[in-house]
Design brief:
With about 170 residues, the protein is an alpha+beta fold. Helix content is about 20%, strand content about 35%.
Amino acid sequence: MAPKKYLVDLSQIDMNVVLADQEAIEDFNPQRFEMAQMTALVYENLEDHTCVGYKDIGEQDFWVRGHFPEIPLMPGVIMLEAIAQCCSLFCQRNDLLGAEMLGLGGLEEVRFRGAVVPGDRLILICQMTRVRRGRMIVCRFQGVVNDLICVEGLLKGIPIPVSAFQSLTES
């Protein structure tokens, strides 16, 4: 079986050239504290709607102690959250959806193919395959560690009506 092809040629990406660090990511993504799952954005291409970011996995990440004791494996849902945040960052930085906030609308064809553990760098590759401004985005994604695709699939993002939720928290 031939190795899978990456959505973006990672040999052409300099992971040391940071376009957005954690502080800049917070300008566009609302996640904070334990739920912030991106370390940096290192590549974006508006012509083919692709981006690359990463999450450095540390011993202090909130899930390490309990998932699982003595065998710390990054939960799949946290991998998917990192991918969603990378996709959201690209969309919001470039105002692709025209929404105040982007939320997870669905996942399809998701496959987990490898483990992610503390000390790893999970490279997040996103390619928007469909952008319907004001309605939704569809993104093909891959998560890569040590040249192996650990997770891949299709993500759908939808606009979040922030004002509707703000009225709920004000009561």
